[in-house]
Amino acid sequence: MLRPLAGVTVGRRNPSVLDEKRLLISGIVTGDSIAAAVARRALLAGAEVLVAAFPRDLAAAETVAATFTGTVDVVAVDATSQEDLSMLEEHVRQRWGHLDGALHAIAFAPQRALAGVMDVPSVDVELAMRTSVWTYSAFGRLLSRLAPSSGASLVGLDFDSARAWPVYNWMGPCKAALRSLNGYLARDLGARRVRANLVAAGPLRTRAASGILDFEVLIDSWSRQAPLPWDPTDASSVADAVCFLLSDHSRSITGEVLHVDGGFHAMATSLNRPAE
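User: That's the sequence. What structure does it adopt?
Assistant: Structure tokens below.
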């Protein structure tokens, strides 16, 4: 005779993984971005979403947000500006009172910093690091003040920085710094029950990728080395992983880098695939 598991209420609806979660999503400019895919998934999973858009991208973000299911507010925020971050904090306090999670999908490097590493002015490197790395700590600080007593989750977007790529250039060191910072944020935010994790995605054809010279080199590498099929036009698997980390299902996970790359990172070299 089958018996109900202890602690399980038979017949009760299984709530969506993000029911009633109040989430901040940054980095939405176009509908094909990882951030847009996360927002769509989160809304379908029961979350409320606030979009933080770089001021010059506000209209574009509003256009994308208008395609989402439900009403989504979009606010203009330059995450490198302490004044804008304070304004964002006050907006969240007035709107919700607290914040359950945030997606940091912010990265930028001037074109010269993407073209090489040797002859790049320090001002370009400093801007890349401030935008791509320092802002992650700023989001952590924001969550530390707005998290409810039950805790919250900070998720950032990473790319494999353990090796030097034939493209990517100064964004590689930026991502390496981001990965190091993630561990320190996990250390410092843990007392507030705030988790900090990164998702290292495979290459996706997004607006951000369009600024990387010879980006197709990465796509070709994945087609030869990833043991699982990788679709560079489909961000849904990455979005699902982000939503998992934003949910209570990841309540004991922090300081982690979750690879969603078809297994590319685990392979030492290209695979000898049988002829089709």
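The mean pLDDT is 90.
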